[in-house]
Design a protein that fits this description.
Pfam families: Glyoxalase. This is VOC family protein. InterPro entries: Glyas_Bleomycin-R_OHBP_Dase (IPR029068), Glyas_Fos-R_dOase_dom (IPR004360), VOC_core (IPR037523). The chain is an alpha+beta fold. The protein has one domain: Roll (2,3-Dihydroxybiphenyl 1,2-Dioxygenase, domain 1). It has five helices and 19 strands. The strands form three sheets. It has a nine-stranded mixed sheet, covered by helices on one side. β7 and β8 form a beta hairpin. The longest helix has 13 residues. It starts with 11 loop residues before the first strand and ends with a strand.
């Protein structure tokens, strides 16, 4: 894992907050299968960490929570980036031993495992190939969805899985949106990201030449509605800007586009055009 893409040279996803139907059930999964530690906890909310100090994921059980709604905008998956390929091998072996249902892909820039939590919230756990091996053509990074070579990955296994490594970060978030062009205008023209890959029904955006910090797709249908506020799925995610000026410039562009902005939590709350809630901070 190259820290450049999650440093003051980049705008990146800091943490993600999701809704679940049963906090205790979800906590068991996220501790024993994924390997998180508890950072903070109250009756309806748990903040989870890998390094014991940095929030990566918050689980919240809303009042009168609704089960995951299909064919809506919102979370496709959040993606935990592990420091090394050996870490991914350990996680794969752990999932096989625990009989966890997995998907797996080789994206050329990375190798990824896919699973869902007990409520159907999508999760990717992945490791990157060295950025020097990524192919760029006309400012577009070459990505694909190929079968993962599992035996080759497991050959990297060095130690059994215990917990998420300390240097795990939230590598990216992938969202269902209602309209791609509308989302592109908001995230690129407004928030300041760059389009780095186009895919059928999807586009991938980043800063600092990462393969993607955010994925956007219309795979739940063009014009998909937003879910109810108390349903399982995404509550909000945080974007961390490299400095105050870069953040202020993004806020100015959003204001010029008449996007509603609320100052909160040492930053700003905004909704994208598909009603995905975002906390912007430096």
């Amino acid at each position: 894992m190259e820290r450049t893409f999650f440093s003051n040279r980049a705008t990146y996803v800091g943490d993600v907050s999701i809704h679940v139907t049963n906090l205790n059930n979800s906590l068991d999964f996220y501790q024993n299968i994924i390997g998180f530690h508890i950072l903070e906890r109250n009756e309806r909310k748990v903040v989870l960490t890998a390094d014991g100090k940095t929030s990566l994921l918050t689980l919240e059980e809303p009042e009168k929570v609704l089960s995951k709604q299909v064919k809506t905008t919102g979370l496709y998956h959040f993606a935990l980036l592990l420091p090394t390929r050996a870490d991914l091998a350990s996680f794969l072996m752990h999932c096989l031993q625990q009989n966890v249902q997995l998907g797996a892909s080789d994206h050329l820039v990375s190798e990824a495992l896919y699973l869902s939590d007990p409520d159907g919230n999508g999760i990717e756990v992945y490791s990157d190939r060295l950025s020097s091996a990524w192919e760029w053509i006309n400012n577009q990074v070459t990505m694909a969805t190929e079968p993962l070579e599992g035996e080759g990955l497991l050959a990297e296994l060095k130690s059994p899985w215990m917990y998420l490594p300390n240097k795990t970060v939230m590598g990216h978030i992938h969202l269902h949106v209602a309209h791609l062009e509308e989302a592109k205008q908001f995230y690129v023209e407004g928030l300041g990201f760059n389009v780095v890959s186009n895919y059928p029904g999807a586009l991938f955006i980043s800063t600092a030449n990462y393969h993607h910090h955010i994925g956007l797709n219309i795979w739940n249908g063009e014009g998909a509605p937003a879910p109810e506020n108390n349903s399982v799925g995404l509550k909000l995610f945080t974007l961390v800007y490299p400095d105050k000026q870069t953040l202020d410039d993004a806020i100015d562009r959003l204001k010029a586009s008449e996007v509603k902005i609320k100052e909160e939590n040492n930053g700003y709350l905004v909704e994208d055009p598909s009603k995905n809630l975002i906390h912007l901070r430096k």
